[in-house]
Design goal:
Number of strands: 11
Order of helices and strands: HEEEHEEEEHHHHEEEEHHHHHH
CATH class of the largest domain: Alpha Beta
Number of helices: 12
InterPro entries: Aminoglycoside_PTrfase, Kinase-like_dom_sf, Pseudomonas-type_ThrB
Number of domains: 2
Oligomer: single chain
CATH architecture of the largest domain: Alpha-Beta Complex
GO molecular function, one term: kinase activity
Pfam families: APH (PF01636)
Shape: globular
Strand content: 5-15%
Radius of gyration: 20 Å
CATH topology of the largest domain: Aminoglycoside 3'-phosphotransferase, Chain: A, domain 2
Keywords: Kinase, Transferase
Bound molecules: adenosine-5'-diphosphate, 2-acetamido-2-deoxy-1-O-phosphono-alpha-D-glucopyranose, magnesium ion
Organism: Clostridium punense
Helix content: 40-55%
Length: 368
């Protein structure tokens, strides 16, 4: 356990009931520091909460970020109640501080927040069943549908230009020109791969700017481990990790889900022969997503779904490769060349999507 954190100070700020019995690092996110904290209630069971330190190197305005999360979860709660759902499980529930704030700014540094732990469900790094991925698609489509009348103006942009692939590409060119760590010489093949495809990075940005694609309230970080899957029913019970909720495109959410879930291997798999874009997985997610959105996507959105899957995968690869060249300052790494390994899996997926592009289009047409 990392002793840099003064848990005693942090834990007493939140409205937890019972005696603290355990604190454990939790989950496999690349950004925040996440812990599961367990309390024992007198005459009762143990109760768990999620406690997170927000990564303020990445999220520079945590107060605004928390305002987004409060507004969105309150909005979702009302809708879930109105449709007879369970608001304690189907959306994140913040635990407030004793001062009625949604976060605590600690004396030793860092912004902390806490959520009710969603029990009886789990997240997966790799999809283990087609049904799970179909259900994740349904849950994410439904999430967008529920937020379709959320007042987008109320949202702060927590990371400006997050999915502006054109700007991501320009930033890559800059990092490459600087080559701070002198690593470019060892990754020429990957650099070439990016440079050859640079032109494609403007497509969605231009469609959005010209109004041909609608701006919606989107999640923007829809990797499979950001959907909690119910242990009994296999349903996508709750969409979590709401740090990047911002105005965006449904194509970002669809594309990022395919990027992370349609690959039967881990995101950092070193044996690239195991990495691919599995068409069966693609089909299950697509069917679920289109059902979840209640078929409300426009023709242009539907037309660009396969392209978005490829572009979001390419964008993520660019981000991993940029971070590798830049000395691994953004994504958490756990071994040498970790971001390079991650970039390679993304580029392998892009290549595979190129080969299977017509089949992906045919699948989308089947369910539109
Ligand atoms: P990061 O931004 O670092 O990815 P997440 O908010 O996704 O952080 O949390 C990391 C992991 O913690 C998730 O993948 C999930 O397994 C777990 N987790 C997060 N929130 C909850 C919750 N409310 N209940 C249960 N598990 C959760
Ligand atoms: C990060 O936070 P996490 O691990 O769910 C990243 C995503 C990337 C993803 C790649 C805020 O997601 O954009 O697609 O890693 N989140 C942020 O695995 O940058
Ligand atoms: Mg996450």
């Amino acid at each position: 356990m990392n002793n840099d954190y003064n848990f005693e100070e942090v834990i007493k700020q939140f409205n937890y009931k019972g005696d603290l019995v355990d604190i454990q690092p939790y989950g496999a996110g690349h950004i925040n520091d996440t812990f599961a904290v367990t309390f024992h209630r007198p005459h009762g069971n143990n109760v768990r909460y999620i406690l997170q330190r927000i990564n303020t190197r990445i999220f520079k305005e945590p107060e605004k970020l928390m305002e987004n999360i409060e507004n969105v979860t309150e909005f979702l709660k009302k809708k879930i109640i109105a449709s007879g759902g369970n608001p304690k499980r189907e959306t994140l529930n913040l635990v407030y501080t004793t001062n009625h704030k949604p976060f605590y700014c600690s004396s030793f540094g860092g912004y902390w927040r806490s959520y009710v732990f969603i029990e009886g469900a789990q997240t997966y790094q790799v999809v283990e069943s087609l049904q799970h991925f179909y259900n994740a698609g349904k849950a994410l489509g439904n999430f967008e549908e529920l937020l379709s009348d959320f007042p987008a103006k109320k949202l702060h942009e927590t990371i400006p230009n997050f999915h502006n692939t054109k700007i991501r590409y320009e930033e890559f060119l800059q990092v490459l020109a600087e080559d701070k760590m002198n690593r470019a010489k060892d990754v020429q093949k990957e650099i070439e791969f990016v440079l050859e495809r640079g032109k494609e990075t403007t497509v969605l940005v231009e469609l959005l700017n010209s109004g041909k694609l609608p701006l919606r309230v989107t999640h923007n970080d829809t990797k499979f481990n950001n959907v909690m899957i119910d242990n009994d029913t296999g349903e996508g019970v709750c969409v979590i990790d709401l740090d990047t909720i911002m105005p965006g495109s449904a194509l970002y959410d669809f594309g990022d889900s395919i990027r992370s879930g349609a690959n039967p291997a881990e995101e950092d798999e070193r044996d690239l022969s195991k990495v691919s874009m599995d068409l069966q997985l693609f089909e299950h997610f697509t069917r679920g997503f289109l059902e979840g959105t209640k078929h409300s996507l426009t023709d242009t959105e539907i037309e660009y779904l396969p392209f978005a899957a490829k572009l979001m995968t390419f964008e993520c690869g660019i981000r991993f490769l940029s971070d590798h060249l830049n000395g691994d300052t953004y994504f958490k790494i756990h071994r040498e060349n970790h971001n390079l390994d991650r970039a390679r899996t993304q580029f392998k997926m892009v290549e595979d999507m190129d080969k299977k592009f017509n089949e992906m289009k045919a699948i989308v047409d089947k369910y539109r």
